[in-house]
Amino acid sequence: MRTPRIAVLAALSALVLGLLTTGADPAPPTAPTAAPATAVSAAPSAAPSPSAPPPPSAPPSTRVLPGTTRPGLRPPVVSNGARTGNAVALTFDADMTDAMLYNLASGRVKSYANLKVLDILERRDVPATFFLTAQWVLRYPDVTQRLAGNPRFELGNHTYRHQAFAPKCYTLPEIASNLMADDVAKTFSVIEPYGGHQTRYFRFPGGCYNDTALQALAPLGVTVIQWDVVSQDPYATAWQPIVNNVLNGVRPGSIVVMHITEANAPFTDQALGPILDGLAQRGLRPVRLSQLLGADTGPDGADLPTP
User: Fold this and answer.
1) Is residue 48 assigned to a domain?
2) Residue 261 covered by a domain
3) For residues 80 and 255, is the Cβ–Cβ distance under 8 A?
4) Which residues, in sequence order, are bridge partners of residue 224?
């Protein structure tokens, strides 16, 4: 009985010995090559899939801003809206030259931001458009945020530091024509983060421009805004002439220019109330500039007759 069992054990021993001597292995030695292969393929698999949804963020705005024109074309110049209806636009410039900054720094001037004008506009729910220089925005960021936060207000561009875009523009220092487009573009970049009713409206300092200036702004796709009613509030010595200048010249479609620079226009706030009363007596209603020009309709202008 032991012989068959011994024979079987001997056969198995011979088989094992044969496998060891030939180097055969039932499991191929793939481990050394598998590790590098796994490491190389792991990096691409960790990257986001092209079809994966992007991280949450605010959706990009597809709204065309009021005043947007086709880049490359000479920008249009607008001095008034349509003469039908009862709408007028009150616009306020916020100048800030280098000299004005020096006056603030030296203490010669206390403020170039007339908050009383804003108080009156807000208390009476009056829409208005503000043309801001970048240096004014940088000096008064809280006031700028106040402007942007009011749904009845909208913001336009008045250059970076209120330099002249044409020769002999009052006493303003002139900017070189090759710097004009960059100056205006940088100003938009300063204003835009504040949000609110942004526009592509641009106003030349002093209203001074020529063909060279218009051609320089062609790449920016803006609309140039002038005016047909001059309040002459800068450096006024009393408020009554400001009121007379506005009410004697205003009519449907008018664009009125005033200032919120306080020290340079110290009587604007005193004139504003009588101006608003006079407009109401004439059946005229202030609206945002974009509403006057038919480029925007908002809750506060929805019931306006088409200007």
Assistant:
1) no
2) yes
3) yes
4) 77, 202
Q: Does residue 157 lie in a domain region?
A: yes
Is 305 inside any structural domain? no
CB 80 within 8 A of CB 289: no
| Residue 254 token pair | 């008018």
Residue numbers of the domain that contains 154? 77-294
**Per-residue pLDDT tens over the stretch 47-63:** 333 333 333 333 445 67
Question: 128: helix, coil or strand?
Answer: strand
Phi, psi torsion values for 127, nearest 5 degrees: -70, 150
pLDDT value of residue 63: 79
pLDDT in tens, 118-130: 999 999 999 999 9
Q: Are 148 and 196 in contact (CB under 8 A)?
A: yes
Beta bridge partner(s), residue 143? none
- Give pLDDT, residue 22: 38
Q: How far apart are alpha carbons 267 and 241 in whole angstroms?
A: 10
CATH number for the domain spanning 210: value is: 3.20.20.370
CA torsion sign for 297, 124, 93, 307 is positive
Tally the domains of the chain: 1
